[in-house]
Amino acid sequence: MRAVTINISLNPELAEFARADSEARAFDSMSEYMRDLIRRRRQEQIQAEVAFLEEAISGAPPGDPSDQEMAEIYASIKARRKRRHEGRL
Question: Which residues lie closer than 8 Å to 84 by C-beta, 6 or more apart?
């Protein structure tokens, strides 16, 4: 897969923290450090969605959901993702 370059701007305090943390954790480059942070954040989101679905399943009645119930489930997931994207979750 072709790499995409993304530039970020940090205030001096965050930049120094990132430099020191990446060196302390022995990353070869700031790019490796940022990729690791993004992978960890993505994994956190996956785990949060799995926990949400496991909780929803635990109270679900046996059998397959109806088409209406599936539509409600999808709408709930879509709304949750939107709230999370907007930083409200």
Answer: 45
Average pLDDT along the chain = 91
pLDDT of res. 60: 78
DSSP of 51-77: HHHHHHHHTPPSSPPPHHHHHHHHHHH
CA distance 13 to 11: 6
CA distances from 17 to 24, 26, 29, 73, 88 (A): 10, 14, 14, 41, 26
Query: Tokens standing for 33?
Result: 């450090």
Positions in the chain whose pLDDT score sits under 50:
none
Residue 8 — φ and ψ, nearest 5°? -125, 155
